[in-house]
Amino acid sequence: MTALHNYYDARGREKHSFSLRGPRAKAAMDREWSTPADRQIDEFVRRTLLSGFVHKNEVLTHYLPEFEKTFADTQEVGVGCPPTKTDRGAPRSLAHDPAAPIVLDS
DSSP alpha helices (H): ranges in 33-89? Predict the structure, then answer.
């Protein structure tokens, strides 16, 4: 996740920075971030989203508008991994219903 955050953070910051310099600078930076390697990264991330190994709510989309823009139309359809976001400190898949009895193995 850190690599994903760092990549889309750097890409978004550079594209934004160069957009402030004018349309030619923006176009040049858009080309620089559109290499075959960049397209491979986007496709890899898209597959992880589609398969459920990464969930959009795990990515700081408010902090990474480039990620949000790139994958806005990508729908999560798989259930490869449960989300890691927590509910009261425990992962959602492990969060305990307070009304349910606690059963301990002996």
Answer: 36-51, 65-70
Alpha carbons 8 and 65: distance in angstroms, whole number: 8
Which residues neighbour 26 within 8 Å (Cβ) at sequence distance 6 or greater?
15, 18, 19
Q: What's the angle, vertex CA 6, arms to CA 72 and CA 17, rounded to 5? A: 75
* pLDDT tens readout for residues 13-32: 999 999 999 999 999 999 99
Q: How many domains does the chain have?
A: 1
Q: Is residue 63 assigned to a domain?
A: yes
User: Looking at the predicted structure, is the pLDDT value of residue 100 above 80?
Assistant: no
